[in-house]
Design goal:
Blueprint: H1 14-33, H2 38-59, H3 67-80, E1 84-87, E2 103-106, E3 119-127, E4 131-138, E5 144-151, H4 152-157, H5 161-173, E6 182-187, E7 191-197, E8 202-203, H6 204-211, H7 216-235, E9 238-239, E10 248-250, E11 256-258, E12 265-266, H8 296-299, H9 306-322, H10 332-341, H11 352-361, H12 378-381, H13 413-416, E13 431-433, E14 439-441, H14 446-456, E15 472-481, E16 486-494, E17 498-503, E18 508-513, E19 523-526, E20 531-535, E21 540-545, H15 550-561
Antiparallel strand pairs: 1-2, 3-4, 4-5, 5-7, 6-7, 8-10, 9-12, 10-11, 13-14, 15-16, 15-21, 16-17, 17-18, 19-20, 20-21
Length: about 575
């Protein structure tokens, strides 16, 4: 606000004297209302921006709003992922998880100068929020890995840097036959890659699903190997925080290996050497993991302890013996209510020893769970359920026979000799040439599609839209395309079958596509890996799937039509 200056006044002019006094009062009022001049205000804003940018760069090493800062940050990340690093002492606080060390540290699993073109990519093992795990064969020597592909852009945007760094550092330093091994890392402009040990036997979850439930001898074998690996993890001062059948992998001969350390939490006395700012920045009581396996103390915002993993072990043992998790319910909220109330129903076929062990592991007091007391894992190993287990040779015992994948007889990229030929891997699915100049996704069986969907759709927000007994077969975050605009939706295919799309922000159903087994009344047309149309007699709906699952949507719908 500007006020024009008043010319010199004569003391003998009373009118001008009054105007001058009014002018000064006005200036005084303006100064009281706006304590900073325009220059001062601009300076203050500039300083605030500088402070904010400085604070942001300290907290998030490679996250920034500008492209220049982002590129600089990614370069910083690349340097930190180098094969040899010198660690400086880190005295910062991290909820008790920061370990102060000052020593030279060399990664066992180096960062290599590979590109994605150096690998033949096969089936997808699993998909997460910012990563996918793919079976990959090194072209040079034929070595097979489980290649974890992580989207840099998403990691930066969602501030997941600390989790990625921590997982990489922890896996590099763990050395146990019951834990998946990290061999090397590499990266490109779009993605970070971790080459992990490929467990050809699949997930324990799949064995439970194929067999319906496991025998007590099978459950004893698998749970003993989990206990053996979990004891090592806890001895290293780490809490896994996501123990569940999906994260218990099987080697080709059937031995258990614990995977997915993306939620790991180092304790104060951890033996793991951490990079500065590499520890996850969440508090020890932050909710992580999977709803059906989370302990009650975490729901009550208590700090994480080793007892969290022991609770999850109890849930996993229950699922081995029954085929379902102990607190399964229609929604996440109902699951949490059952956990807090400790609403457990034991099937009649559970032995007394199995029932007692699970009951003790699911104690609401984490300090009373076997393995969490003053005598450590000795009390857990002495439990009658584990009678006859040779703990010194637990890894050399003959494993149970694996149930084969019922879909393994169908065509697959490995069987038909058509490996994927990726041209770009960011958060996009890898594609292959179909031999006619087009591009298509690698063939997957309906079972693989269903399994992939279950990984992506665990978020139980969508459970409220299902009817009793109904389950999700496939789900994607899509854009519903119109002539000028587009709308973000969640497209859901169920086993009823039903096709619905939901507004993910308002959590309301926006539409229901009328199902028909007749392809004339319901069919899917694919125009690109990410674009497809669902056609009915009354309307045609166009969708864009950012994860490039257009062909998977087509196959999933057609599989249900032809069942």
């Amino acid at each position: 606000l500007k006020v024009s200056p008043i010319p010199p006044l004569s003391d003998s002019d009373p009118i001008l004297l009054r105007l001058r006094l009014l002018h000064r009062i006005l200036i005084l009022l303006i100064s009281l209302s706006f304590p900073f001049s325009s220059f001062e205000i601009e300076t203050q804003n500039h300083l605030r921006k500088q402070h904010k940018a400085s604070k942001s760069s300290l907290q998030i090493q490679w996250a920034s709003s500008s492209t220049c800062r982002e590129e600089h940050s990614l370069m910083t990340m690349e340097k930190e992922f180098d094969s040899k690093l010198t660690l400086q002492g880190n005295n910062g606080g991290d909820g008790g998880a920061s370990i102060s060390r000052s020593k030279s540290f060399a990664f066992k699993a180096p960062q290599e100068n590979f590109t994605i073109q150096d690998f033949e990519l096969d089936k997808i093992y699993g998909v997460g929020s910012y990563s996918k795990v793919v079976r990959a064969k090194k072209k040079e020597n034929g070595a097979v890995y489980a290649l974890k592909i992580m989207d840099k852009k998403f990691i930066t945007k969602e501030n997941k840097t600390a989790y990625v760094k921590l997982e990489r550092i922890v896996l590099d330093q763990l050395d146990h036959p019951g834990i998946v091994k990290l061999f090397f890392t590499f990266q490109d402009s779009f993605s970070l890659y971790m080459a992990l040990e490929s467990c050809e036997g699949g997930e324990l979850f799949d064995q439970i699903t194929r067999k319906g439930r496991l025998s007590e001898d099978e459950a004893r074998f698998y749970s003993a190997q989990v206990v053996d690996a979990l004891e090592y993890i806890h001895t290293m001062g780490l809490i896994h925080r996501d123990i569940k059948p999906e994260n218990l992998l099987l080697t080709s001969d059937g031995h258990i290996k614990i995977a997915d350390f993306g939620s790991v939490k180092p304790m104060q006395d951890s033996q793991i050497t951490l990079l500065p700012n590499a520890a996850s920045d969440d508090k020890a009581c932050t909710f992580v993991g999977t709803a059906a396996y989370v302990p009650p103390e975490v729901l009550n915002s208590s700090p994480a302890t080793f007892g969290n993993d022991l609770w999850a072990l109890g849930c996993t043992l229950y699922q081995m013996l029954s085929g379902t998790s102990p607190f399964k319910d229609a929604s996440e909220w109902l699951i949490f209510q059952r956990i807090i109330a400790r609403d457990i129903k034991f099937p009649n076929h559970f032995s007394e020893a199995a029932r007692d062990l699970i009951d003790r592991l699911l104690d609401t007091d984490p300090s009373r769970r076997p393995g969490a007391g003053s005598d450590g894992y000795a009390s857990l190993k002495r439990h009658p359920f584990f009678k006859g287990v040779d703990w010194k040779n637990v890894r050399s015992q003959t494993p149970p026979k694996l149930a084969p994948d019922p879909s393994s007889q169908s065509a697959s990229p490995e069987r038909d000799g058509s490996p994927w030929n990726p041209t770009h891997v960011g958060d996009a699915s890898v594609t292959q040439n179909d031999g006619h100049g087009g591009v298509s996704s690698a063939t997957e069986s309906s079972g693989s599609i269903t399994r992939l969907a279950s990984i992506d759709s665990f978020d139980s927000r969508w459970q409220q839209f299902l009817e009793p007994g109904e389950s999700v077969l496939m789900i994607s975050a899509v854009k519903k395309l119109q002539k000028i605009t587009s709308k973000k939706l969640q497209l859901i295919l169920t086993n009823k079958p039903r096709l619905i799309y939901v507004d993910p922000s308002k959590l309301i159903v926006k539409g229901n596509i009328i199902w028909s087994d007749n392809s004339n009344d319901l069919n899917v047309q694919v125009s690109s890996p990410s674009h497809f149309k669902i056609c009915t007699p009354k309307k045609v709906l166009s969708f864009e799937d950012s994860k490039q699952r257009a062909l998977q949507w087509k196959k999933a719908i057609e599989t249900l039509q032809n069942r």
